[in-house]
Amino acid sequence: MDCLRKIPSIIIAMLLTITLTSGCGSSGGGSGGSIAYLNFDNSDVFVNIIKTEFEKGASSKGLNVEYFDAKGDINLQIDQMKEVLAGDYKVIVLIAADGKLIVPMVEQANAEGMTVITINRAIAGGEHVEVFSDEAEAGKMQADYLAKTLPQGANIVYLEGEGNQTNVIQRWEGFSKGIASKRPDVKILDMQSAAWSKVEAMKITVQWLSLFPKIDAVVCGNDQMALGAISALKAANRLQGCQVTGVDAVDEALKAVAAGEMVQTIKQDAAKQGSGAVGLAEEALKGQKPSNVNVPFVSITRENLSQFMK
Predict the structure, then answer these.
(1) Same domain (yes/no): 175, 287
(2) What is the CA 164 to chain-centroid distance, rounded?
(3) Alpha carbon of 179 to those of 193, 216, 224: distances in Å?
(4) CATH of the domain at 104
(5) 210 and 106, same domain (yes or no)
(6) Domain assignment of residue 12, yes or no
(7) Which of 120, 281, 290, 305 is deepest in the core (most CB within 10 A)?
């Protein structure tokens, strides 16, 4: 009789254990998924669009995925990679927090026979397949537009992203070479890093406005920085006559273009990058060898804005 009385509590304990264990996966705490998705930072507007699209695609195909968020911290992402390497995953989908420091972990994944798929951010080594856009093309598109619209002898400033990431370097190179070849009369007054941040971009632009009495354009490596620059320009009553251009085509930037506050945003298709990675992951799970996917950039101005507004 005593044993019979204990059975319900034992069963309850087992059920609780199973429930708690199965709940870990959605936040990246378990090791039961065939695919590990390691995100740079869930709070980043653009990369979270990629993640959302990947989630939708993976769910529709019934793929088993564990999601990890590095919160912008490369050390945390390295720890998460170690956890993945100790698990039973077959595919790693990676948006790298740092394209150089993550390489040893990618090489370990290669040694374990895992397929590594990188999205959006290039990494400096290891075997991997990429879902990417030609970052230099984004900068070139900004240069092409401003070359046609800037006044003679224009003064511009440039806000770049964080650190020595490949997309930061290539966007700047695409822009600087493009504007120099088409408009040698244009002067770049200053270039600073706002680390992709709207708040930092606003602070830097405020400083520029106190230093430079004439700024004809603020060129930005992403839309969040462009939106920060717009806030500073509006507060100083200097937005009129100053052209602001960014990259990503997030909803807020599209609205700014519609309102005439921003002259251009370059669409980096986050949705296609996310869905492209789903296709590569599915191929890898089937034992196929996936190939790189190139997602082109598109220049958006008021002339073609209606094609992209929701």
Answers:
(1) no
(2) 15
(3) 19, 14, 22
(4) 3.40.50.2300
(5) no
(6) no
(7) 281
Give every CB contact of residue 11 below 8 A, 6+ residues apart in sequence.
none
- What is the side-by-side strand order in the sheet with 243-247? 187-193, 155-160, 217-220, 243-247, 264-267, 298-300
Q: Bridge partners of 157?
A: 190, 218
SS3 state of residue 222: coil
My answer on whether 57 and 90 are in the same domain is yes
Digit-coded pLDDT (tens) for 257-276? 999 999 999 998 999 999 99
Instruction: Read off the pLDDT of residues 62-117 as tens digits, 9 standing for 90 and up.
Output: 999 999 999 999 999 999 999 999 999 999 999 999 999 999 999 999 999 999 99
- Residue owning tokens 């080594």: 125
Amino acid at 202: M
Contacts of 112 (CB under 8 A, 6+ apart): 85
Q: How far apart are the C-alpha atoms of 235 and 218, rounded to whole Å?
A: 15
- Domains: count for the chain: 2
Q: Which domain holds residue 84?
A: 31-132+271-295
Q: What is the DSSP string of 138-177?
A: HHHHHHHHHHHHSPTT-EEEEEE-STT-HHHHHHHHHHHH
Among 67, 72, 57, 82, CA closest to 25: 67
Tokens of 44: 């980043």
Q: Is the pTM of this model over 0.70?
A: yes
